[in-house]
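Records of this kind hold a single protein each, on a pair of labelled lines. Below, a sample record shows both lines together.
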Amino acid sequence: MAVETGRSVAPAAGGDARGRGRGTGGAPGKTPGPLRRALATHWYAWAMVAPVVTVIGVIIGYPLVRGIYLSLTDADEANVARTIGVNEIEASHEFVGLDNYQAILTDGVFWDRLGWTVLWTVGCVSITFLLGLVLASMLNRKVRGRTVYRMALILPWGIPAFVSVFAWRMLYNEKNGILNQLLAGGGIDGIPWLGDPTWAKISVIAVNVWLGVPFMLVAMLGAMQGIPGELLEAAEMDGANAWQRFRNVVLPGIRSVSSTVILLSTIWTFNMFPVIFLLTRGGPGDSTEILVTYAYRLSFIVSPRDFASSAAWGVLILLLLSAFAVVYRRSLRKQGEVW
């Protein structure tokens, strides 16, 4: 009986060993993959992130996929699915491939809008960055009333953009605007701020700069205050003047922050719909029309509304910004700024 018992126990023990060898991976001695290890180790973090990822996928992912699909069709107001009273009309649009992109890229309208959009973006971002840098340098010093100045300069950031734009629209009024009244008081003829193509472009850039300076100011000021004071003191003891300290200590110290805010400001300005549309509606004529406002016009203003072309314009805008972000990131990596 003892021998039989031993024989019966041995296979069971071997079976347990083989079972332990398999573990949860199946094959004996096989270690779990990196994805499984990450899930097992950081399951709580994944559980917390999952709802956010799901919401973003629904809010951003679905419209993006839908827009790409529409850009490959001839969908417009007359052939999409719609309901009229109790009648439901099915969609009759067809797949046309890349015809919409070919039509856009061979049309001078796209290149004219792209040229002004690039000029508008470069002008706004450059002026905003320089003003934010100068103001941050001034407020980084110990001056009387610094808190009041900070609040006054950050105030435009706290006002909704559409409210600010409407306020500026009243200031730019050619007959009753405060700006032309001030000019008239000095014996200067009024300026057609929004009626002349050149002045309209200057006007929209000025409004966008006014809206963007507070963000740049806060970012630059925070970066400057993060620079160790010992570096500035050491440079001053070595005989460096204020400009040399700024160029050799401050600018390198804020490079990582400035490169990031420049990228963000570029993306925001490239797609700055409210300022252009609410201030000039792309006018006079189409002189201030940027890519995003023209895409909106195709989808919601012109008749019949051209959903396919509007979606194609949107996809091209996304591709342009993605290409810029990739090139910009590579240039930063070459300079040693990795983010």
Observations:
- Confidence is low (pLDDT under 50) at residues 1-27.
- The domain at 106-334 is CATH 1.10.3720.10 (MetI-like fold).
- The beta strands are 82-84, 87-89.
